[in-house]
Structure formats: C-alpha cells, structure tokens
Queue: 3 jobs
Job 1
Amino acid sequence: MAWLLIDNSNTRTKFALGDAARLLPWSGVLSTPDISPESLARLLAGVDFGAVIICSVVPEKAAILTDYFAGKWPVHFLTAQSPLGMELDYPQPTQIGADRLANSAGVLSRHGVPAIIIDFGTAVTFDVISAAPAYCGGVIAPGLGAMSGYLTRKTALLPEVELAEPASAIGKSTVQAMQVGAVFGYRGLVKEIIARICSELPGKPRIIATGGDAALIAHGVPEIDVIDPDITLDGLRQVAARVF
C-alpha cells in the first residue's frame, strides 16, 4: 500500500508517495497560500494511495487538509506522540515543530546518529539527535530570505536582490554588497552554531542540510557533510510504516 506524504511548510507544501521500502517516483508541490480543496483535487487526480500522513506548521492549511482527507482515508498528523523511532530528551515535546520531528525521524536510517539536521526554509532550524538515539533540542534562526528581505522592507533605498554566490567579499554595487552580507554573513551564522553544538554534543555528528537554500549556503560550509532534499518526506514515510 502506498501512503501519501505531505510536508506542509510556510512557503511550499510538498507531496510524495512512499511505501514500507522507499519513496516512490510520484511527487508534487503546491504553494502553501494556494492550498484549497480545488488545488488538492487537481494535484491528486489519478494518484492512488491508501492512507495519509501530514506534518504541518501552518494551522490554517492543516485544517483544510484535515477536511479534505478525513473520512476518506486514514489520516495521521505527525506530533511528538507519533512513533518516531527515538526518545525525546526535551522538557516540552509538544513545542517541537512537526517538520523538525519528521527530519529527525528521517535521519536515523538515511544518515545515522549522532546527527545535526539543518533545514534552510523560511526559518532555519538546527535539530540535534544524540547517539542514543534521542532528540536533544536545537536552534531556530531567521531564514536567509527573511534576513535579506528585512533590509528591503526597513530601508528606503536598498533594493530587493536575488540571492546568489558573491563573486567577491568586496561588493562593487549595492546589490553585490547586499549579496555578500546575506550569503557570507549567513554562512558565518551557520558555522558558529554548528561549532557551538559540536562542542556540547558527544561524538562526531553527521551534519545534514535540507530545504530551499541548502545548496547555496552549504557550498561554502565544509562542515556540512551532505545535502538531503528528501529527508523530511522520508521521515514521514518511516513514521507511516509504524502507524498504518
């Protein structure tokens, strides 16, 4: 039986199929603001699945997903009570975002532990998994787009810029200067957080990057071992194998 896997994040919502062995070839994406019964019906027309698992950080859209699937298929929303395959060494587990739990579940068989998963999305999150394995906690910082967009919104003369690899650390235009500040500055943030976590976490962790800005930032952060765009969806698949 195939399961429908849904990663409902702030910007984009990703869909995939998986079974007990692997992620399957079909996948789809919707802009999260565009999630509606109509857009779901168009995307899923002809897609065959027997159950649905969802991780959501957008309550308004989670309600739409619930209304669309409930009563038609078995539905499981990922929470701290889901069978994640690890302990939660965290005082208030209900505060952990569902996407962060999915990433943590995905790291077990894909990369091993201890591990640090860095998810470059609207926010950037660092999630730390010990060798036990146990979810130990992490870090939340503004995403790269949020940091660069803030300057445009809060200043009169600075333009919007397309984030790209700077040619030099000395910008020769306003746009280049903003790209340097965003990309090189953000890499500095990531490196410092990695160093601090590694100084407190026993063992040598595997460091995995995922999310929309992962490739750009990881290019200049040699501490990152691998970019894994599928870790969230595969984490959902692994939990689904224990639920359904």
Job 2
Amino acid sequence: MTDPAAYLPILESGRWFAHLPPDFALPLIGMAHLRQLQAGEVLFLRGDAPCGLYAVVRGAISISGTGGRANEARSALLTRLEPPHWFGEISVFDGSARTHDAHAAEASTLVQIPHERLQAWLQAHPAHWHALALLLTDKLRTAFVAIEELALLPAPQRLARRLVMMAEGYGQWTAGGQSRRVLSISQEQLSLMLAISRQTTNQILKDLEQRHLVRVHRGEVEILDLAALRAACL
C-alpha cells in the first residue's frame, strides 16, 4: 500500500489519533506519506535536524541513546514503539535537533508528516497546537513513571511492570482491556531497557516462567496470565 489513508483503521485504534477533531485528523493524513524501513535501518540519529512527526503502522521502532566516553560508551534502549504509536513531536515543538536515535527493530512502515508542511499548517491553524501538545504530555507522564520506577522499585517489579505496559500498548489503544499476548522483545533488549544486567533479566524471567506468568521464546516473551503478572508489579 502506498496511500497513508489505507492505514486509517490502525491509526484510529490509537487513543490520540482517534480523539483528534476531524479538521485536524484529515489534514494530517493529507500531508502524510509513507516511509518503509528495513530491520536495523536508521530513521534518525541524535543531533539530526527535525524531519517530521511519525506514526508506526507496521513493525517496530527502537528509541535508544548512547552515553559515556568513546571507549566506555554504553547504550540504553529507552522504548520500543509499535502500531499505532506516534512519535517525534518534541522537535515539532522546539525545532531543535533530535534527542535520541531511532532505528527499525524489524521491517517497518511509518506514516510521516514532513516537518516543514506540518509547521506551515499549524502556523495557519494555531488552535490545533493544543491537540499536538496532548501527545507530548502523554509521553511526559510515561517518562515520569519510568523515572519513578527506576528510583524506587526493585528489578523484578520493574521488569514485570514493563511487560504489562508493553502488553497493554502503553495505554495507547482505544479499546478497553485490549492486550497483546506475545511481545517481540529479547532478554538483551529488556536488560538494556531497564538498565539491569542480562543475567538478572534471565533470572527474573525464569522466576516468572516458574510461576506460569510468562513463557520465554527466542526473541519473544509470551504473556500467559496478564492479571497475575499485573499483581506481581505491586
């Protein structure tokens, strides 16, 4: 498919887009075009100029960062974005460089709203900045939760919470109670995402397996009992 409008059912399954007023949602799709990425391909890197607003409609995008001295640099996987997530809004607001790296975790299709076209449209329709701000504040709330968990919770609870959040699409879906049974995430990626060792991640997942809450496959975690896994977060 080459028409972004063909992906409207996927976009409308997401809470943010589904609640946009039609006089913003329709022009947004009218400005859009599709981007196809192969697994591992770069979408943008930290320091790159703004290139627009994006929505994942197929596949997954990894958002990551690297820090430390060149010979001691460490990578952190911040999140993995799957349909129908929108992202890239920070640079839409401040016009500054990208803050993190974005790569295709697998073959992916994105809806892209080019930066210049979106800026020009918003300049002519300033009332719709508020709707875009709601996307930003939603991400900010999620970031604060992650910071709090990192500071206060032990690794087993943080891992269980992250699995629940991923299974529930980080609260982005419109359908109440919707969840994903199989998560495309490796143990290495989980350890990077939660800033814990690969060994600790493996031990926690083995414990969850023994409690029949999850089943670990190569590159995947299958949720067997979401309610019990959610209880393990407390």
Job 3
Amino acid sequence: MELSLILIPTDFSDCAMNSLDYAKQMAEKFGSKLILLNVIDSREAQHFASYSKEDLDKVLDRLMNQGKQAFRKLLAGWEDSDLVQETLVSVGMPFQEIAMKARDFQVDLILMGGYGSRGKGGTIEEIFFGSTVEKVVRLLPCPVLCVPIGWPEERL
C-alpha cells in the first residue's frame, strides 16, 4: 500500500498534537504529504452564538480565523513544514467533514489522535453513538490510524 497522502484532523488539543507529531514521522519515513484539517463543530458554534447573543456568521468567522492562525503558528514551529500539502478549516459535524475531505482528496490514510481505553470522560453522545474516531472508522473505507495520547515515538 502506498502512503502518498495522509489526512490529519486536529482540534489542537494535546491528543491531536501527539498525532501530528506521529504523522510527521510517518510522512518523513514514507515520503508522504500531509493535509491538516480543523473542523469547527457547527452545533457548538450555534450554542456559543446563542449563549453570547452574537450573529452565527460572526462567530464562525472568528472561529475560522482562529483555526487559520493556529495552523500558521503550528507550521512556523515545524522544521519540515514542506511535508504539509494543505491546511483546511471547515465547518460542520466533525466526522462528516473528515469523511468528505478524505474522499475529496482521495487520501491513503487518516491519522487521528484518540484517548484510547482511558477515554476522556465521555459525553452522552459518545457513550451512545461513539467518538469522532469511531464514527470515521465506521464511515470510511480507507484505513484510519488512531494514535492514543502518550504513544511512544520510538515505535514507528
């Protein structure tokens, strides 16, 4: 199997940053390019707009700008930023956006951070419907690699 293009969804959490480090190592080892994706959960944005009494479009613009700035800051600290083919910020349900981008770009692998068996506490939705990682695994035919937080780097 060729690994020319890897999609890495990130919310910039410690768990997601761990998966980015792992993806960078994989890209270097296999000569792959990376697509980094940040998805703004549309449901959370609506809740925030309702709570703050702000226009939803203004909230989304601010969140999208924050995502773009976070990518610029992240890539400024990476020596091998040439591994990154594209950075994307999109709005929607995270698992659906990840699936659509994976299909649009015809990626060979999705590499995501996960909390492993420890979990992160779990919301009601995660308990009954599964985490974003689980939904992506069920939805897509391409391989999905879930890197738990704290995964030792020397295993690659």
